[in-house]
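Here is one chain, start to finish.
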Amino acid sequence: MISLLKKRLRDRTLSAVDLYAKTLSDIENKSELNAFVHVTRDGDRRAAESHKRLQDGTQRPLEGIPIAVKDNFCTKGVPTTCASKMLQNFVPVYDATVVERLKAAGAIIIGKTNLDEFAMGSGTVDSIFGPTKNVWRSNPNQWHIAGGSSGGSCVAVASGMCVAALGSDTGGSIRNPASYCGVVGYKPSYGLLSRHGLIPLVNSMDVPGIVTKTVEDVVTVLSVLIGPDANDSTCVNTNLDTNSFQTNFLMDKCRIGIPEEYNCEGLSNEVKETWDYVANLISSKCTVKKVSMPHTSVSIATYSVLNACEVASNMSRYTGLLYGYRSTADHKSFESLISTSRMEALGEVVRSRILSGNFFLLRRNYEKYFMQSLKVRRLISDDFKNIWKSNYDFLVTPTTLSTAPLLSEFKSLDNRTQCATQDYCTQPANMTGCPAITIPVKLSSNKMPISIQIMASNFDDIRLLQFANWLEKKLQFSQDYI
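Its structure:
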């Protein structure tokens, strides 16, 4: 998709100015999906600059390409709200590193996309801007969830409002909505991309990621984002060369693992059949074997504790004193001001996780919950390491347990139940930091996308993308439905 746009821009069969205008028109025409919370309508200057560069032959890698950004990445001079009343008036004075690098590559940031408040959710329903709706529908009279928390970014790409978008992934927040929306969602290895300017949820698991319609487009965007950052000590110099994506990929040399524990309670028959279909397709080209990852079943519980603990720590900065929403009611103490401000500005889901995290971190509970969860996280990570040590190249699993639920059904469940169900297959990758990608496979009987997930060892991102690209071409979902 991006390569086609770049060719048309170079050939001058399409101008950057016209492309930007069409993008704004598409966003306006599809506003009922509620994918965007802020549209940057001052991009005319950047579009004109890109047009001139293209005419002069001095274009940059993403010259004139419209890209959306999830609204938890800082954007200079553009509101960054995290879909929360707490930050509804926050306008950063700097760009997140990944946003800065997109701009330096010539991309035009067209707007900020919707998310669950502070990225705490798996449906993009818990937002002060209202829920984002999936572009795919099994019934014209009912909406399905987009997935979350990067639902706005995935709907923006799936609906054709843009060809790529940034999201963030803490426990599946890119892969989950990408699966439901029938697009490609890539979570890089932890430390591959800079987190500087990404408003944190869980520092030890958060990663910026990429949403596109094809794996090739993921690589195109990744190539301008990759690299160390002095502003982020967790971002490392891995010397990964995205150009090696174009080298010959020897599928017959690969060993693929199919984790038995991912065949779990709640996995729909159609998703299981799709998983089996992909495994059989791959087995005709390479070795495919069932493997065991025994601590998968306790991963959600472990993730829930660690998530809440880090949320409690990160959210402690939102007091209304230094920045963020401040209550206008009369107060007799700082404590009253802080508690009232947080009660008025933070949603129930966010407050619940803060309370849970502080409970787990109490002196009497610290060893029982937090320390034990860290130990179990190590065991989960060791499950992955044992697979890689056994010379398996990739793991292939479902991404979600079902197709996108109806919005009305999903909202009837509490947030904790939603996340425990929707993130079962995705959050183990965040616990160990390995790269993962979801690609669409087929449509279900009710015409909703079904996807599968591929995981690889840490920093083996390029080979992961090569394998995903090979499989994508075999499946041909993008040719049939996009």
